[in-house]
């Protein structure tokens, strides 16, 4: 299979990936391993935007389920994504990869606000740009944040690193005969409620023709492989 011509990609990692083998929070050693993979990908000449979730620290839905006001809990979730973004920036810069964090909730002591033209300039200069705080509004997720930034930054594809190696027709953890799709269209994902990203994120990618590449980030070296179009993955597209 020939390598797809990706020039600029958005990589979405869920917060849980940063936990490594812990049950909660951030494992700096594991974040360092992830940063090495991002560096390896960047060294091939790719422009990389990153969006990291916050589920390793706090999810608004979980707070709401325990009686919190949903919007308040979501703001806490967004702040969690900023902590993760700073952890990843630290790990990348320790490897010599210049990185800027832009947050959808302004926090000028720790990072920049989201400014598209400035982000463009960072990418041109070879910096990785990490977009934090999702879309900056409650009742959304970082999947929607990732879809929004991928559209805004005109990324060629959205790479969603998960603990599963693609999209299946049923849950591979509970059904041993679950079948993995090589490619699947957006409308099937939405109609069959396949576990890719939340519906608003998938719809935004569909409406802007952004392919979603779902792959496992748990396997070492896999990111570079899927960016070359190799390895196990599912591509969601038209
Ligand atoms: N969140 C939000 N608006 C956004 C992005 C995130 O309110 O635009 C909140 C929401 O509470 C969410 C939490 O931040 O549960 C962490 O993000 P997410 O659940 O997407 O993280 P992931 O599952 O990717 O680790």
Automatic annotation (TrEMBL):
Keyword Cytoplasm: yes
A biological process term (GO) from this entry: UDP biosynthetic process
Catalytic activity: UMP + ATP = UDP + ADP
Principal subcellular localisation of the protein: cytoplasm
Biological or metabolic pathway of the protein: Pyrimidine metabolism; CTP biosynthesis via de novo pathway; UDP from UMP (UMPK route): step 1/1
InterPro entries: AceGlu_kinase-like_sf, Asp/Glu/Uridylate_kinase, Uridylate_kinase, Uridylate_kinase_bac
Binding site for ATP: 12-15, 55, 59, 162, 168, 171
Entry GO MF terms: ATP binding; UMP kinase activity
Activation and inhibition: Inhibited by UTP.
One GO CC term, this protein: cytoplasm
Binding annotation for UMP: 54, 74, 135-142
Pfam families noted in UniProt: AA_kinase
UniProt keyword list: ATP-binding, Cytoplasm, Kinase, Nucleotide-binding, Pyrimidine biosynthesis, Transferase
Domain of life, per lineage: Bacteria
Assembly with partners or alone: Homohexamer.
Name assigned to this protein: Uridylate kinase
Organism (species): Novosphingobium kunmingense
């Amino acid at each position: 299979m020939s390598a797809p011509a990706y020039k600029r990609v958005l990589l979405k990692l869920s917060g849980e990936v940063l936990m490594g083998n812990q049950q909660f929070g951030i494992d700096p050693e594991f974040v360092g391993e992830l940063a090495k993979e991002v560096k390896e990908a960047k060294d091939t000449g790719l422009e990389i935007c990153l969006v990291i979730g916050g589920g390793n620290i706090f999810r608004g839905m979980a707070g709401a389920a325990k009686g919190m006001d949903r919007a308040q809990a979501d703001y806490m979730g967004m702040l969690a994504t900023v902590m993760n973004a700073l952890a990843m920036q630290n790990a990348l810069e320790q490897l010599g990869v210049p990185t800027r964090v832009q947050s959808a909730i302004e926090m000028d002591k720790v990072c920049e606000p989201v400014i598209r033209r400035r982000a463009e300039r960072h990418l041109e200069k070879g910096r990785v740009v990490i977009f934090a705080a999702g879309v900056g509004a409650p009742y959304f997720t970082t999947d929607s944040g990732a879809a929004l930034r991928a559209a805004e930054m005109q990324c060629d594809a959205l790479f969603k690193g998960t603990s599963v190696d693609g999209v299946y027709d049923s849950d591979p953890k509970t059904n041993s005969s679950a079948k993995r799709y090589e490619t699947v269209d957006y409308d099937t994902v939405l109609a069959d409620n396949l576990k890719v990203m939340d519906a608003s994120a998938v719809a935004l990618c569909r409406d802007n023709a952004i392919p979603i590449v779902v792959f496992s980030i748990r396997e070492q070296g896999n990111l570079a492989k899927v960016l070359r179009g190799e390895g196990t993955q599912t591509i969601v597209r038209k």
